[in-house]
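In this section we walk through a basic example: taking a raw amino acid sequence and producing a predicted 3D structure, encoded as discrete structure tokens. The instruction is simple. Fold the sequence below.
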Amino acid sequence: MSASTAGVSANEMDVASWRAVAFVAAFALAWITLQPFPDLASADALDLGSGRDTPTYVAFALCAASCLYLTVPTDGLGLRCLANPAYVALAAWIGLSGVTSQDVGTSLKRAALCGFVAVVAATLPLLPRGRLHLATLLALAAGALLASSYFGVAFMPRYAVHQASDLGEPALAGDWRGVFGHKNDASIVFVFTAFIGVYAARAGRVVAGVLIAGLSLLFVFFANGKSANLLWLPTLAISLFAARHGAGWLWRVAAMAPFAALYALGVGSVMFAPFASLAATLPIDATFTGRADIWRYALGKLAAHPFLGYGFDGFWNTESVRFGTDNSAAWVGGAAHAHNGLVDVAMSMGVPGVALALGAFVVQPLADIGKAARNGADPALVTLLTQIWLFGLYISALESFLFDRADPIWFTFLFAVFGLRYVASFPTSPR
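The resulting token sequence is shown next.
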């Protein structure tokens, strides 16, 4: 080997190492965050959270710049496939909702952070060198999250398990939350890491994959996240069905049926009497743990601003909402979000924003999965991305994470959506 050849090889290895570091660091930033194990007994836990979390803005801005630096020279063609009409139209509407917001400054800042997060999520699938490398890096990221959360449960439960002293929701005492601020976030993200464990095992990291999947599902059980425990198994079944029939119409019906049912029986029950009657006949809590009152309140407010909404992320967690409600609705005005993804999108960006979000996050991924199946893309990778995407869609009927800045669920969902765009646009193989 010549000196020049050796130099090129060493340089390539150095770049590959930095790409791997950036990948794992980005997931750690999104999942573990800069403030893990929040103290829910502190008065800070009730803060409005107006978006002035400067370290998070700076960290994601630097992460986005680093990921672009590592991908644009070699993967510019891949990034260009994201400039499709569904994404461009949605991005333009987000900009419009920011400049027409009831609080322009707050909306634009929150939109900026959401943009940094989107750039990071869009570049991450391009960083690994191949299937085994991707499985290894995902396993490392999931393993770090699991190790941190289990360490917290074992050695500092005050900060990793809900306590009766929590100021916000003391009734959750005993439910595991790990590094997260709420058991629902923990349970959803650990379902994602369970899917990652299955992928890692299928890609060749069998022992690590089995451990990750098993420990993740155990955490989901002890977190007692009702929505996550209810939906992860149907998601798994439907994703396996998609792996066999991803290019046909039948799996699309199977995939969308739970999504439509969850929205119809959930927020649909406060909009249409027949759905309310149907929900009342089922063995479920027809109020969806108090969510129905929040949906009624939000939809009532939406009637005043149906076209543009209140501005990007400009409704909940604002002084006017939290302290501007009458006594009968005071607890609803104190909610952090609508506990429904599309309701929150409507509050931020109006009814057109909902239509554009459905186009980008439902219609486009459906088309991408079908195209990836027809092109013979790596089945294990397509299945993983489909599982994360589907589970996110289903969960959005009962939890709010769409466009929620640096939310770990939103970040992982975006990673899957952009990943599906790539596997549909470029050939992949199971190697």
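Looking at the output, two observations stand out. The CA atoms of residues 240 and 383 lie 7 Å apart. Residues 15-425 form one domain. In the next section we compare this with other chains.
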